[in-house]
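Input chain follows. Return C-alpha cells only.
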Amino acid sequence: MTEGAGLRRWPGLLMAIIFIACSAFVAWQFLAKSPVDTDILSLLPVDIRDPVVGDAIARANSAASDRVVLMIEGATADRRQAAADALSRALVATGMYRPATDEGRDLWSWLFALRAVLLCPADRALLAAGGGAAIAQDALRQWYGAFGVANSALLHSDPLLLTPRLVQCFAAAAMAQAPSPQAVILSGRITASAFRLDIQDTIAAVLDRWRSTWGTHGLKLSRAGAVFHAAYGAARARADMSFIGSVTMVAILALYLAMFRSLRPPVLAFVLVVGSLAAGLSATLLIFGRVHLMGLIFGSALTGMVVDYTTYFLITGIGAPDRSGAARRASMYRPLTLGMATSVGAFAALLAFPVPAFRQIATFGGVGLIAAWAGTVWLLPLIEGRRSSAGPAARLVERLATGCLAARPPRVLALLAVLGAVALLAGALSRGQTLDDIRQFQSPSAALAAEEGQILRATRFAPAGTFFLVRGASAAACAANEERLLDRLAAAGADRHVLLAASWLDPSPGRRASGQALIADRLIAPGLPGLVATLGGGNPQAYRGPDAHPALPAAAAALRGHSHGQFWSIVPLTGATPPVASSAGLADPAWQWVEPAARYSALLGHYRLLATAGLAAAVATTALVLLLVYRRLAALAILLPTVIALVATPSITGLLGLPYSFFSAMGLFLVIGAGVDYAIFQWEHPSEQGRWTRVGILLAATMTCLSTGLLGLSSVLPVLSFGITVALGILLSLVLSPLVRGLERVPAGGLSDG
C-alpha cells in the first residue's frame, strides 16, 4: 500500500493551511506591536465577590505603575542639569513619556479656572473665622517679595494670587520633592502601559544611550518606577523562555535522532510543534488581544506536551514499518482522541477561575493541543515519508519501557499505592505549609530596590500602598462622601497620610457653592479693592465671569470611576496602618479601607480552596468521559494512577518544603488531563501489541516532564510551583500507569477510528 493510501488528503491540506496562516498572523502581531503583558498582577485572581473593589485596585495599580522618577547625581551642577535636560528630551522624543512639568501646567490651568471656587482646608477655616484680610496681606507680601511668583498677567487675572496659593496647598503632598543640592530629579508618567515589552525596551534603550554618553562624566543615574521592575522581570522571563525552549528542542532533536536515525522525523515534529503553538497563540491573541509573558513561558513548556502526539504516531512506524499510515492512524485514533479530550478538558477547567493569565494559558494550551492532535491525525500520515526499522537506541528504549511499564502488578500493589498516597497526604497536612502571600511571589531586583531607596530618601516622598474606596449613588454624592471622609481624617489627625484626593480639585456641588460664597463675601469683596489700590494697578473685575473650563488633571481624574452601577473614587494613602484607617470616627458604609496586597492574598487563599475542590469535579468529569466512551464501570480504573498522583504530588512537594498554593492546584488540573493519557494507552494496548506504544508513552512523558520541570528553575514562585507540580504529577502518572494493565481489555467502541 502506498504512503497515505486510505487517507483523505483535504483535512491534512487544511491543517497545513491553518498552520501557515496562524504562523503568519503571530509574526504580524509581533512585528506590528508587542502584544505581551508582563504585569505580575495578571497572574492574580480578580475579585468577583466585589467587582468594584477589583476595578478600584486595578485603577490604583495602573496609576501607580505609570509613574517614573529618575535622579542624576555627581559632577557639577551645570553638567547635572545639562545631562538631565538631554535625558528628558530623549524620553519625550519617544512619544511614550510625559514629564511632570506638563502635568504641572495642566494643574495650573485647572486651578486658575476654579481659583474663585476652590479652597484649601486651612483657608476655608480661615475665611470661616473671618480671616480674609490675612490672605490679602499674604498676597501683598508676595507682590513685593524678591522671590514671589507674581507677574503682569497675574496682576490682571489673579491679583489675590489665589492660583499659586492653591498649587502650594494641593500639590505639596502629592508632588513633594526636595532633592539634595547634589542631585537633579526628573519625574513623569509613561503614556502607555508600563507592562508592554516595546515600552520597556524603548525606555531601557534611551537610558542605555544616556549612560554611554554621560556616564563617563562621573554622573550616576538612579531609577524608580514599575516599568523598570517589569523590565527586570521580563528579562528574566525571556531568559527562562529561551532556556526552556532551547533545552526542550535540543532534547527532542537528540531523542528523535537516536530513535529514528533520520533528520526527517525531528523536522516533522518541529513543524507540528511550531504550527500547533502558533494556532494556540493566534487564538489567544484574537480573544484577549495580548498574551502574558508567563503564558509564553508556559508555551515553551507546552512543547513537550504537543510533541507527544507526534511521538505516539511516529513510534508506531518503527514497530510496524510495513503498515500503512492509515492503518497505524486507525490503531492510534481512539487513545489519541480520548487523551486530547481529557487534556483539553483540564485546560478548560482553568477558564473557571478569574485569573487573566490562566485563562490565556487555557486558550493557548487547549487550542494548541487540538491543533497538535489534528495535525498528527490528518497531516502527519501524509508527509511522514520513508520509515526505518528499530535501531539500537530504539531497541534499548523498548527494553527500558518494557521493563518499567509492561508489568502486570497485582491488585494488592494498587491498594498499597493508595495507602501510600494517603500516608503522604497525612504527613503533608501535619507538616506542610500553604502560601497565599502575594509579596512572596517574586523577588525584586536588589539593584532597583537600592536605587529606589536613594530616590525616596532624597525626595522624602513615599508611594501609596493603600487607599480608601468611596462610593456614591451619583458622581456628586460620591464627591460629597469623599469630602466627609477627608474631614474625618483631618479630625483624627490622619490627613497627613492623604497623597491626593479628586475632591480637592473637583469638589461636590455643595462644597463648590460654599467655597465660592466664602471667597466672594469674605475675601474678594473686602480685600480686593484695597489690594488693587495699594498695588496701584490690577483688575478689580478679575474674579467676575466664568473662565474657560479645562479638563480635570489626569492624576485626579484617574482616581474616579463608574462601574457595575456605582460611582466610586480612590483616596490614596501613604504610611497609613490599619489602626489609623479603622480609628474611631472613620467607620462609615460610604467608604472602606483597602490594602491591595492583603486583599490579593486573601483572594488567593479563597481560590486555592476552590481550585482544590474543583480538582474533584475535574476527576468526575474525566470519569464521565471515560464511561461515555467505554460504556463500562471497569474503565474507571483508568483514573486510578492519576488520582493517586493527584494526592501524592502536593504531599511530596509539601514535605520537601514547597508550599501548596493556588498555582500548585492549577498545575494539578494539567496532571489530570495529561497524566491520564498514559493509563488510556495502557488500557487500550495491554498486550504485546502495546510494546511500541509503551515506548511512545515513555518518550512522551520524558519530554513533558523535561519541558514543564524546567519551569521549576523560574524565579517567579507561581511559575515554579506550577512547573514542579506538573512535572512530578506526570512522572507519578507514568510510573503508576501499569496498575491498569491487569484488567481485561475493553472491546472497542465509543469513538470511531476517524
